[in-house]
Design brief:
By secondary structure, the protein is mostly helical. Helices cover 62% and strands 0% of the residues. The chain has one domain: AhpD-like (Up-down Bundle).
Length: 190
């Protein structure tokens, strides 16, 4: 549900139907953030390809680290849709409800391992003060056993969530408890 027209599964044409079918087969349903792209199937396909690569592709970053980045960036952008979706994903990796709530509300209050805190600090700064980034920020990340590819992956995830948060916020993409849960298991790494 959003503020613009969306194409339902039953009304999908030959360009959109295969994308919807793949999503239904792999995830069990179609997230509202993806359905909002239905008027532009080529953009939806590109969006999915980028998302799958950065969130599930080979990386020195764990899935927990990637989902924490998603939540931190989305909170900084005040995107409740993405905060809630990716906090739900984080429940697979963090079983402590109080810790999850702290990450959702203000990650700096959470007792995170130093590497994850450094990643989250970088993600937050890149979101709220992108013009203030310095090489020292990257050098600091390297002290936590993060190499250049890992830092690129972090930066791509930060950029992606700034992008997708603006889609959700700009088009009024809504969520509810039914939309947040009930997806099939996460895909394996690609």
């Amino acid at each position: 549900m959003s503020w613009i027209n969306e194409i339902d599964v039953a009304d999908a044409d030959e360009k959109l139907k295969p994308i919807y079918d793949d999503l239904l087969k792999s995830r069990g349903k179609i997230a509202n953030i993806l359905k909002v792209h239905s008027l532009n199937p080529a953009a939806l396909k590109s969006h999915l390809d980028l998302y799958m690569t950065i969130m599930f592709g080979q990386s020195g970053l764990s899935r927990k680290e990637r989902e924490c980045i998603a939540v931190v960036v989305s909170r900084a952008d005040n995107c409740e849709y993405c905060v809630n979706h990716h906090a739900e994903s984080l429940t697979r990796y963090i079983k402590d409800d109080a810790l999850l709530e702290k990450i959702k509300q203000d990650y700096v209050t959470a007792d995170l391992p130093p590497r994850l805190m450094a990643i989250c600090n970088y993600a937050f700064k890149l979101t709220v003060q992108p013009g203030d980034q310095k090489q020292e920020d990257l050098n600091h990340l390297k002290t936590f056993d993060l190499n250049d590819k890992d830092i690129l992956d972090i930066t791509l995830i930060v950029a992606y969530f700034n992008f997708v948060n603006r889609i959700a916020l700009g088009l009024g993409v809504a969520f509810n408890s039914e939309e947040l849960s009930g997806y099939k298991d996460e895909p394996s790494e690609i």
